[in-house]
């Protein structure tokens, strides 16, 4: 399970799996878009998502639980060229891509 918390007006999180399966979350224009590729995604109050789906998002706190196997997470914030990459080591990881965006990701290995 991966839990993502983010406060941002614009961000992109891409979680990569072996075999080029991936999940990408983008936020912009008040909509959150999830692109699911062989991952299971649950947003609080929502059913697990499949495929590509956009839902309203107010730019507050995003919490997503993502089930996947060995993975890494790459963060792009606010259109900045700065990005941070973290591999799954089983520990909690804090991303701070710039002075305004903080992203906390906790990764676990699970059977898929």
UniProtKB/TrEMBL annotation:
Database matches in Gene3D superfamilies: Exo-inulinase, domain 1
Superkingdom of this protein's organism: Bacteria
InterPro entries the UniProt entry points to: ConA-like_dom_sf
Name of the protein: Uncharacterized protein
């Amino acid at each position: 399970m991966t839990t993502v918390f983010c406060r941002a007006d614009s961000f992109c999180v891409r979680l990569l799996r072996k075999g080029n399966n991936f999940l990408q979350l983008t936020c912009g224009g008040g909509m959150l878009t999830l692109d699911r590729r062989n991952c299971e995604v649950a947003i609080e109050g929502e059913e697990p998502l499949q495929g590509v789906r956009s839902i309203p998002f107010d730019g507050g706190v995003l919490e997503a639980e993502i089930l996947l196997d060995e993975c890494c997470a790459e963060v792009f914030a606010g259109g900045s060229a700065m990005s941070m990459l973290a591999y799954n080591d089983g520990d909690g990881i804090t991303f701070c891509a710039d002075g305004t965006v903080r992203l906390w990701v906790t990764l676990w290995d699970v059977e898929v």
